[in-house]
Amino acid sequence: MKKIYCFLMFAIITSSFSQESEGKKENFKPYHSISGLLSHTMIKDGIRDGKTEWIAFPSFAFDYNFVFNPKWRIGLHNDLIFEDFIVENKDGNELERSEPFATVLVGGYKPGKHFTFEAGMGYEFAKEEDLFLTRIGTEYAVELPNEWEFIVNLVYDMKWNAYDSFAFGVGVSKSFGK
């Protein structure tokens, strides 16, 4: 199964490069972008009043991306949850989190005009314990004047041996150096 997955990823990556026209490559100039999003982070295994239930918290995302190809980007995505909470980890034990801050190195693929799909790895930091995480997500962007974009994103974070969360956010992005 792992070999099939690797083959599919290789096929998608190589086919996306081969479909670009020469004129598109000549006109493209790499650029940087920064984004700020107001988000809501949801956790399925939260503990409130001694019961396990869905919990949701306000969060903020600040993202940096370097767009080096019309379809590809690499970025550093950062999220902060503004609350303290307790979750049930994968072993069934309680895990406290105090205003966790996540930073993730992501790669993004933009197959068309609006959607970008991203995946990456990083860490969630909190005073109790730091957790390794894997992120997958998608972002929808609408161009605005003067190199601005309105963006909506949905990301899913898998904190290894701990808990999972997903966040839904809206915000703006500003491009530099286009």
Can you give keywords for this protein?
178 residues, mainly beta, disordered N terminus, two-stranded antiparallel sheet, single chain, Porin, eight-stranded antiparallel barrel
Task: Produce the secondary structure layout.
Layout: H1 2-18, H2 22-27, E1 31-48, E2 51-67, E3 72-81, E4 84-88, E5 94-98, E6 101-109, E7 115-125, E8 131-144, E9 148-159, E10 164-176
Antiparallel strand pairs: 1-2, 1-10, 2-3, 3-6, 4-5, 6-7, 7-8, 8-9, 9-10
Report on this model:
- With 178 residues, the chain is mostly beta strands.
- It has a single domain, classed as Porin, CATH 2.40.160.20.
- It has 2 helices and 10 strands, in the order ααββββββββββ.
- The protein has helices spanning 2-18, 22-27, and strands spanning 31-48, 51-67, 72-81, 84-88, 94-98, 101-109, 115-125, 131-144, 148-159, 164-176.
- The strands form 2 sheets. An 8-stranded antiparallel barrel has the order 1-2-3-6-7-8-9-10. Strands 4-5 form a two-stranded antiparallel ribbon.
- A hairpin with a 5-residue loop joins strand 4 and strand 5.
- The longest helix is centred in the N-terminal third of the chain and has 17 residues, at 2-18.
- The protein starts with a helix and ends with a strand.
- The model is unreliable at 1-11 and 13-23 (pLDDT under 50).
Distance separating the two termini: 41 Å
The side-by-side strand order for the widest beta sheet comes to 1-2-3-6-7-8-9-10
The tally of helices reads 2
Percent helix range: 10-25%
β-strand amount: over 45%
Low-confidence stretches: 1-11, 13-23
Characterize the biggest β-sheet.
8 strands, antiparallel, barrel
Number of strands: 10
From the coordinates shown, what is the CATH architecture? Beta Barrel
Task: State the name of the first-level CATH class.
Answer: Mainly Beta
Rounded average pLDDT: 88
Helix and strand element order: HHEEEEEEEEEE
Radius of gyration: 18 Å
General shape? elongated
- Work out the count of structural domains: 1
SS-based class: mainly beta
CATH topology: Porin
